[in-house]
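Q: For a teaching handout, I want to show students what a protein-ligand complex looks like in token form. Below are the inputs, and the small molecule is pyridoxal-5'-phosphate. Please produce the holo structure.
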Amino acid sequence: MTSINPKITPIYQTSVFKFQDLDELESYFQDPGSRYLYSRNGNPNSDELATAINALEGGAGGVVTASGMAAIFASILAYCQGGDHVLCAADIYGGSAALLNTELSRLGITVTYVPFEQLYDLRPFVQPTTRLLLAETISNPLLRVADLRRLATECHGLGLKLVVDNTFATPLLTQPLALGADISLHSVTKYLAGHSDVTAGVAVAADPEIAARLRQIGVFYGLTLSPMESWLAVRGLKTLRLRVREHCHNAQAVAEMLSRHPAVREVYYPGLPTHAQHALAREQGQGLFGGMLSILLPDDQEAVSRFMRRSQRFPFAPSLAGVDSSLSYPLGTSHRALTAEQQRELGITVGLVRLSVGIEPAEELLADLQQALNG
Ligand SMILES: Cc1ncc(COP(=O)(O)O)c(C=O)c1O
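A: Here is the structure, written as tokens, with pyridoxal-5'-phosphate included.
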């Protein structure tokens, strides 16, 4: 018989696995880790992805999900039920706020938003039913950096869990669990998969019981990831280290150039010495500052549109972290659902443009941005 020894895991594009007889079925239920039953419950490709990300995050296990949103949902459900209350950093991806405001509220899970400056003094926000704080390592879209060790101490002192969205940082910059967080989650759609061709998420826990709970929520709510998407994400993950290095290098060069450009009113990038959390970002990010930055153009829609039209290397595509650069417009996309007052308070104004700096030659990106701004 021909021996088939693929170097990499093939795509197990099957929704279900065969059993020879009832003995085999019983052996599965005795030891579910020994074989596969049904792809929603587990599949070699999604397991390979979960294992690889769990290793990068230093976790006790977790679940890969069909989107980052599903990972946020699973993480909150891992600790909360109807009647519970959560705290959420006010600087958060708009989709996370929308999930909390419009859907989890219907399940009886209420939320209070905590301004960035008050994150290390949570007591005034805590209720008897408060279970956790949700925060981002590096916030979307203003790139504020949270001190995760301090946050974990603050949360645990008040009996709360800390759930961290580590999407912008990646585990190469920061491993939230090592700093005391209870769950680290990602939109795998972004840096972990890295090529703008996958929608996926992951939630990894420090505690094996919570890891098992995350997997159960994934299975029962049907949040788990397909074999093909898992396979693509595994492939992307193999170059994460190389990509992140280049993203960071290019973003630093872009941030420095833009901070000197007269058409740019402000650059938000943790790698600039003027950034309010620059020292923390350096320490918590292993000297890397990420590939995302935001800039403030004049608060004039036409100026923003002109910049978008003129740039050839930063197409307006409302996602981030692909190998190819892109830009997004928080006011019109990710943070659209916020009230005008919330948008103003967070600094999400007409002139705010978010850049996802790719891994193209840096000089080409700089030249493109310069000609787009000079127009
Ligand atoms: C920081 C952050 N978390 C979570 C998400 C949601 O991820 P997904 O779009 O994969 O559901 C996003 C999406 O942009 C994000 O930027």
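A: Two things your students might notice: Residues 240-259 form the longest helix (20 residues). The CA atoms of residues 89 and 114 lie 5 Å apart.
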